[in-house]
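Researcher: Structure for this, please.
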Amino acid sequence: MKREKIIVMGAAIVDVLVRPASQEIFRTGSYPVEDIHMSTGGDALNEATILARFGKQVELRTVIGDDLAGKLVLEHCREAGIALGPDVVRPGMPTGVNVVLVQENGERGFFTNPHGSLRMLALEDVQGPFPEDAGILCFASVFVSPKLKAPELARIFRRAKEQGLVVCADMTKKKGQETVEELAPALQYLDYLFPNEAEACLLTGKTTAEEAAEELFAAGVGHVVVKCGGKGCYVRSRELTGMVPAVDGVKCVDTTGAGDSFAAGFLYGLSEGDSLAECAGRANRFGARAVASVGATDWSKGKAPWLSS
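Model: Predicted structure, token format:
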């Protein structure tokens, strides 16, 4: 049996994007904007959506509520061809809805509901055993899910490695006093880790992507890939160490989902058997496409002749 399926685990929510957001709203009470845009979101669903649109077999493991937002997520997954893990719908649990405030320069901030499904993912929702036809597992939500700390992540990643999967993880900024030492039992099972520069530096206490990547590599991560925005990404591994440059000439419109698009591009490359440098270059291209359009995944709806470039 070919191991072609990619399993993505983590958050699946609904985003309401407002662009451009201005503090004038607090003075005037009403403020006209260029666009108010609703779409599915959440790091795991974003990654799964992009991969599915580019022809990959994807299974999403997440939790959502039995409400209007949850139904929107379910319909989106059906249309995109994303398989869902068992028992994803939880009656009585509100599906996460984020309000995304996009500034003129494309940077964004979030209003989030800490009581919704965004923070409710638990070990029983994502642990193995995993399908026999799965080849790659990516946990998209390190530090998003407070119920999944280092011991739980180590258990998930260890099970995946025992089944022969390539294990990857994306992350957000840490929420407390977590350290690399605390996460080491889970990090040792990771083949690839995709933090951005700010996330990596905050976790490690370092001041540069290079220093942070070195710390994470020393903790046991096989390949550390630090997203560095307009500079590209910095890779630290035994086979390659250095900066892989970004795409030139990209106008940033909205950074929502850029990191998720980057991760999806890297996972796509892995599934195609690309080299590490090729995976990083493809990830940079996916990320560039994301920031050049509004929303986390809308850029991936059309044809992409640049995919094989």
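Researcher: Any notable elements?
Model: The chain is about 35% helix and 25% strand. Residues 276-291 form the longest helix (16 residues).
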